[in-house]
Amino acid sequence: MKRCVIWGTGQVGKAIIADLCNMPYEVVAYCSSNFEKYADKTVNGKRVVSPAELKEMCEKQRVDSILIGVIHKCHLKEIQDRISWDFPTGIEVITWQDEGFQEDLLDKTRKNFKGREHIWNVDFEKESEIWVNHFSEEIDYWLLSAANPEGLEHKNCQKRLKNTNFISSERIHPFLTNAMLLSNQFDLTEGSVVMDLGCGLVSKYGNILPTQQRINLLQVDALAPFYNKIVEKFFPGEKGNHSFGLFEFISGFFEKEFCDLILIDNALDHCIDPYRSIVECLYVLKKGGRLHLFHRCSEALFEGYAGLHKWNIDSDVDSHLVIYNHVNFIDITEQLKSVADINIRRVMGPRIEQAIAVEIRKRTDFALEDFLDIKLRQYYLACFIKNLMFRIADEEYRYNSYNF
Prior knowledge:
Elements: E1 2-7, H1 11-16, E2 25-31, E3 42-43, E4 46-49, H2 51-59, E5 65-68, H3 73-86, E6 92-95, H4 99-111, H5 124-147, H6 154-162, H7 178-182, E7 193-197, E8 216-221, H8 224-234, E9 242-244, E10 259-265, H9 274-284, E11 285-296, H10 299-302, E12 312-315, E13 321-324, E14 329-331, H11 332-335, E15 340-347, E16 355-362, H12 374-394
Parallel strand pairs: 1-2, 1-5, 2-4, 5-6, 7-8, 7-10, 8-9, 10-11
Antiparallel strand pairs: 3-4, 11-16, 12-13, 13-14, 15-16
Helix pairs in contact: 5-8, 5-12
């Protein structure tokens, strides 16, 4: 067992210690670059040391490894440079997103899936509070990367706004291909309703099928009011066409058996309760309709549970769809076997590119109360609204400089 110090006492550093129980590391302390703030304090029951004290521990060989538990590139480089310049050579230095470390961590985590019991007891009030405290980070991302003409996503969003092809040149869900659509495998025809849920600033899908038939493409997102304003202000001549909708309550915004296809790309892991969200999505699908998920494998694990990355979407050795974090675990394939068929494909490659593609086909109709407590559903919605209003009341209006 290697004696390890986690350098980083923020959200990532605090969260990752729980995952190290599957790894050959014993965490003996934390280190903070802002040690004065943590003097005489602990994090996760471990003592917080200064960089100078950590250097001494390394020199006296009381530490085998330093795990840098930050993800922000600027802070990561500062720590790496300090260790390189000032610390003794020979000490193992790992960053949380190192390829080999992440591969080992993911492998050991997956092995623990087998035999694990269903424990799904989401503290909805707490999780909704976390969501409302972090949703502005998504808006900030699009303002910096897309609203700014020099931003990384600006040109990409311009292309999306002009795109009409359902299958564009971008990476598309592996279950959606021209061949499959042309063979009418998905029963999409003129007027079919397709929802891009959690679509971000601009959907990457267009409204014209390879057969030249037009579908009704809905761009739905909880941040729709912000995204519409960003599009209209920073992309002249364009109109924001987003509709507002919450994953966990989507059946409150759309009728039962309303959609032919729902697409969720890199968004389910950001929501408050992903299992509840899947059930709600299936409810608004027509019989035979499909829900497509496309996400990085165990995204929250890779991101150190930072920001809105709270859930891992993956598959087990039996190709069952599972969702988990440190305290919750559920086998979606098992839970929904009476109403849906689930197929999974993996996209392999470097850890940062590994993805899971899921197709959930609704086989039969069902009532929401078959899977969800309806009274709790009403309470959860009230909790969400309460937390959102407190957030708005506590925060200065952050977007005045953008004239929203």
